[in-house]
Specification:
Blueprint lengths: L5 H6 L7 E13 L3 E7 L7 E6 L16 E10 L6 E12 L14 H4 L10 H23 L3 E2 L5 E2 L24 H7 L7 E2 L4 H11 L1 E9 L12 E10 L3 H22 L1 H10 L4 H10 L3 E4 H10 L16 H12 L3 E7 L15 E9 L3 E9 L3 H10 L8 H5 L8 E9 L22 H11 L4
Parallel strand pairs: 3-5, 6-9, 11-12
Antiparallel strand pairs: 1-2, 1-4, 2-3, 4-5, 7-8, 9-10, 10-15, 12-13, 13-14, 14-15
Helix pairs in contact: 3-6, 6-8
Length: about 475
């Protein structure tokens, strides 16, 4: 049906004195002897549009239209509210589109995020979820725009694959057979299955992305990944979206430069396009958020060697839950201490021990470390992980042998190191995690989530989005 978005009515005076039609859900309803008021929201803005029903006119307010949660269509004239200067509508006709019974779950003005976990189908109507999802939409567009403006080619890598990219065995299996006792061996089982071999949901498009970069120069993927990592924490989900650029003729310093530029670009875009949501987050979730984001945008990120970071942590006057020694994989408590207490800004940690990193990372001349980097941010920890890729065929083979990996399935990947190999780099950034928004009880949980740019806020919001199981 033809109607005007409430956001347009509230943010411009172009409609003053004109008759318009708006649609939305009733957030509040007030009645008095001479006039009644509805607060309407259609999801295009956090602000509600006030509908005024003058009882001295012929306008009829249907009883069902005054119920919280009901959906209505309102036709009327846009006027200026003399008290607060906002635009509102003098209603001439109100039509109920959908009635709402008294058991509507969002009765209270403010709902705890923990409570909202129990109602995934309705919670998107709350300001908190409305704001988070709108910001994520803006961030997704910003990611595409960042890479498109710089000449990267957007590609789509397979979601169903036989390749476990990092060799961690965290793939969800894809099969048309399911559990069966009719087969004596895995070979017989897979020979009967749809693909004729073992297949699973992709954990990353990196390997295919590298192949594309070897012909296109600069590419990026942006889509869903799936991890069957059985870790039931706020930093893990089974399904998440991330961006993965792969860049030919790029070494680790080049990669760090791209990653920092991307983060700052997205934050600037978000602050410019979502001032209403930012103000809401600042007020309701995290005081000082605006200042924190500006600090990220306006300052250079630190670059710290892993070995130096270990020494700083060992000297810290803090008792960590997990001991710190060279060769350990840093935990969130270590990452946050580095960013929040030592440097007080985002930090690129570089040159990790090769034993805790993936086989494909470029080996440094010291024989102990690889040219890898993680971007750590205050309040969250790691949000980007990347590396310069090993471009030497013999060294890559040796790394795979050292980790006991089979070469089967990696033949094409290895060929890239035989036919015109070049230095190249890439990273993974799980900036957007949408899986928890739609989770319902009894569905899959687990797998990695690196939280979004919005620091603690989006991290806490994502936790609240996952219902209890």
């Amino acid at each position: 049906m033809k109607h005007t978005d409430i956001k347009e009515i509230l943010q411009t005076d172009d409609y003053l004195g004109k008759e318009v039609t708006v649609c939305g859900w009733v957030r509040t309803a007030r009645d008095s002897k001479n006039v009644a008021f509805l607060a309407l929201n259609d999801g295009t803005t956090l602000s509600h549009l006030q509908i005024v029903i003058d009882k001295a006119t012929d306008t009829v307010l249907p009883e069902e239209a005054a119920k919280l949660g009901a959906s209505v269509k309102v036709c009327g004239e846009v006027v200026k509210n003399e008290n607060n200067g906002t635009n509102e509508i003098n209603a001439k006709e109100i039509t109920v589109l959908g009635v709402c019974p008294p058991d509507y779950p969002l009765q209270k003005k403010f709902q705890k995020l923990e409570t909202l976990r129990e109602m995934p189908h309705i919670r998107v109507r709350t300001n908190a979820f409305n704001a988070v999802l709108r910001v994520r939409s803006i961030m997704a567009a910003s990611i595409h725009r960042f890479f498109q403006e710089r000449g990267y080619v957007y590609i789509n890598t397979p979601l169903i694959t036989g390749s476990d990219c990092e060799g961690a065995g965290e793939m969800f299996q894809v099969t048309t057979i399911g559990y069966s006792k009719d087969y004596d061996s895995a070979e017989e089982y897979y020979a009967d299955d749809f693909f004729g071999k073992k297949a699973g949901l992709s954990v990353s498009g990196q390997l295919e992305g590298e192949m594309a970069a070897m012909g296109l120069g600069k590419i990026y993927t942006f889509g869903p990944s799936f991890r069957a990592e059985n870790s039931n924490t706020q930093r893990h989900v089974a399904e998440f979206w991330h961006v993965e650029p792969e860049i030919a003729f790029a070494e680790l310093p080049d990669l760090i430069e791209v990653a920092e530029e991307m983060i700052k670009y997205i934050i600037k875009d978000y602050m410019e396009k979502c001032p209403e949501e930012l103000a809401f987050f600042e007020q309701r979730f995290e005081k000082g958020l605006t200042e924190k984001l500006l600090s990220v945008v306006n300052n250079d990120f630190a670059i710290v060697d892993y070995t130096d970071a270990i020494e700083l942590l060992k000297k810290a006057d803090v008792k960590f839950e997990y001991p710190v020694e060279w060769g350990c994989d840093l935990q969130s408590e270590h990452e946050r201490y580095i960013t929040e207490q030592i440097y007080k800004k985002p930090v690129f940690l570089i040159n990790y021990p090769k034993g805790i990193k993936s086989f494909y990372m470029k080996q440094n001349p010291d024989g102990k470390t690889v040219a890898a980097t993680d971007l750590l941010v205050p309040g969250v920890g790691e949000i980007i992980g990347g590396s310069e890729r090993e471009a030497d065929y013999d060294k890559l083979i040796a790394a795979m042998d050292e980790k006991g990996m089979s070469k089967e399935g990696y033949e094409y990947y290895l060929d890239l190191r035989k036919y015109g190999s070049v230095p190249h780099s890439g990273f993974l950034s799980a900036l957007l995690c949408t899986a928890r928004v739609w989770r319902t009880s009894g569905t899959l949980s687990c797998s990695r989530e690196q939280s979004a740019i919005l620091n603690n806020l989006l991290n806490r919001s994502a936790v609240a989005m996952q219902p209890k199981t």
